[in-house]
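step 4 of 6: structure.
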Amino acid sequence: MVTLGHYLIVSGILFAIGFAGVMLRRSLIIIFMSLELMLNAANLSLVAFSRFHVQPSGVPDYNAQVFVFFIITVGAAEVAVGLAIIVALFRARQTTHVEDINTLKF
Amino acid sequence: MSPILFWFFALLMLVFGAAVVVNRNPIASALNLVVSFLGLAALFMSLDAFFIGIIQVLVYAGAVMVLFLFIIMLLDLRAERLRKINWVASAGGVAVALALLVQIFYVIGHLTFSKQTFPPLARSEIDDVHNIGLLLFGNYNLPFQIIGVLVLVATIGAVLLSKRERR
């Protein structure tokens, strides 16, 4: 049988993959995609807890699903603004490689 | 949901998620991300969250991925050429990610209720979308309006940022 723990472990592995992507990759676009992976891993654990915490009336806890709805909305807005920033950065510097953007580096 | 389907979609999601990080070509990464999100949507549906699953396909596999592909093609990003890899930084990154993974496994292993299966749902007449809508426009009305303002601000911000400055 599939238990709550299975979903949480899958969600944790997905989060770790996204985290490794942010730490290892040097392309801004890929870093951005890895951020999306981490957001969605958090969503998966929220939905799993929503299904686990069944209300006395026999429906899942919809509060968590509304929360996921908000996260998806904010994530979409964040992608729009972030990609606009990447385009502006590319216009100014002709690169999306994080190692070439080191003006503030100590 | 049968365990076979769960493992199939979970592995699909994880393998293609890893491919996003490993791939050198940004377009291949973006397409791998679509498959990963489709697997995730299937997992949402296996948890009886049909509305969230549909939203996931529409927003992420649809809108966000088109935006990513559009930007990659607009900037004409090619496959990254091989640079000198900073081994210390890479090893540090992998070590931190592994430490996070070990910690997550430890915490989940010590949760008492993580071994329990999901309790059954009552067959309800009212569907998923109806319930979420009631909650969204009732209890969470103010956050919903604030989200609307946030999306408006994001739209204006994206337009302003991508406007070419005239000198």
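step 5 of 6: annotate
 - The two ends of chain B are 60 Å apart (CA to CA).
 - The helical segments of chain B are 3-22, 26-46, 50-75, 87-109, 128-137, 141-162.
step 6 of 6: archive
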